[in-house]
């Protein structure tokens, strides 16, 4: 019976658990080593490692009764949903973005090209085609103001 209780109750106070789940902790950074394996389904299957010096994207993951850790992806494996969530959280109610809210963004100051890459992806709502690693559904707007979805490779 005691092992079942552990599955439903975390060792963290309720108010702290709620904050961590709601905040969606994510961050871009430059990979400091060659150890992490990309958590994208295709890359994970191939055991594709994140190379030192490449930009990577992390999501904070917590599993009940275990300490949290970062799950890393290649920058090109970041999903459109993740980019859109970032976009919404950085939008200050208008068209401007508050880049100070993006954890890790200020640490890219020595790499203005990578900062621009992150900025461009968030503003455009998707990873640049030359950086993209996978298959996704991309929105296409047409003159009539409608939205179509197309499978892009």
From TrEMBL:
Keywords: Metal-binding, Nucleus, Zinc, Zinc-finger. The lineage of its organism: Eukaryota, Fungi, Dikarya, Ascomycota, Pezizomycotina. Residues 29-123 form the PARP-type domain. Its main location: nucleus. GO terms for cellular component: nucleus. InterPro entries: Znf_PARP, Znf_PARP_sf. It comes from the Eukaryota. One of its GO terms (molecular function) is DNA binding. It holds the Pfam family zf-PARP. This is Poly polymerase and DNA-ligase Zn-finger region-domain-containing protein. It is found in: Nucleus. The keyword Methyltransferase does not apply.
């Amino acid at each position: 019976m005691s092992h079942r209780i552990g599955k439903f109750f975390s060792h963290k106070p309720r108010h702290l658990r709620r904050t961590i789940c709601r905040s969606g902790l994510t961050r871009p950074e430059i990979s400091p080593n060659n150890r992490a394996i990309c958590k994208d389904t295709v890359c994970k299957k191939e055991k594709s490692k994140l190379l030192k010096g490449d930009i990577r994207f992390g999501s904070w993951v917590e599993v009940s009764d275990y300490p949290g850790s970062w799950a890393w992806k290649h920058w090109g494996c970041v999903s459109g949903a993740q980019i859109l969530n970032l976009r919404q959280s950085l939008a200050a109610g208008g068209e401007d973005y508050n880049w100070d809210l993006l954890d890790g963004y200020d640490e890219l100051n020595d790499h203005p090209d990578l900062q621009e890459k992150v900025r461009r992806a968030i503003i455009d709502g998707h990873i640049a085609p030359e950086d993209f690693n996978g298959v996704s559904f991309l929105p296409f707007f047409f003159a009539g103001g409608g939205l179509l979805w197309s499978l892009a490779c």
